[in-house]
Amino acid sequence: MKFIVCENYDEMSKEAAKIVADLLKVKKDAILGLATGSTPIGLYKELISEYNAGNISFKDVKTFNLDEYYPINKDNDQSYYYFMNDNLFSHVDIDLNNTDIPNGEAADAEKECEDYEKRIAASAGVDIQILGIGQNGHIGFNEPDSELYMATHLTGLTENTIEANSRFFESIDLVPKSALTMGIGSIMKAKKIILLASGANKNEAIEALKNGMLTTNVPATMLKLHDDVVVICDKAAYGE
Ligand code: PGA
User: Is 132 a pocket residue for ligand 1 (Cβ < 6 Å)?
Assistant: First the structure.
């Protein structure tokens, strides 16, 4: 696990964008694993700038997203489907048929999880997986627990996550209590993983990556078993 410590959020976003853009320049049909939340928004803005400058194209790029609330309608402005269109897809030349997000509208959540895992497996494999990290160390919606799932699954959200995400909703009661999420095994299959963290509220989780043991109580520590993980964080998250 390699750490790149940046001065601030903007520098963190630029560092991450450079790695992704460099890949797209040499591999036009790269497969990206994408994340939502406030942290990757700067990265997506940088990628849109690179696209507008004519430096990269998403024409042949495929994407898989980490997770989606369940149940949620795609036109709900808090759905991750809406988020991806709003923050990236509608601004670049990506073919929406090449984008895949767990379907929060699926009638059968278990089947959707199985199908999603099959769709990832049938692809050529995620080249770069972007991750944020929860204050509690979650990745995707793999929440701290005594056991973690390997594959895409339906999960409940912890109180900590519901509270952290309530800032996006009109009231905490409107935050969905469940989600569909890639499992730790799905995430670990990516060839390269970039984990982004910004702000002092992520410091405890980042400390666990720097110094801690492997523990399912901080799901992100499982990434120590992957041989190409870059943690790009600002000084506040790193604890400087
Ligand atoms: P955030 O969420 O980027 O909004 O802080 C990260 C996460 O919960 O994984």
Answer: yes
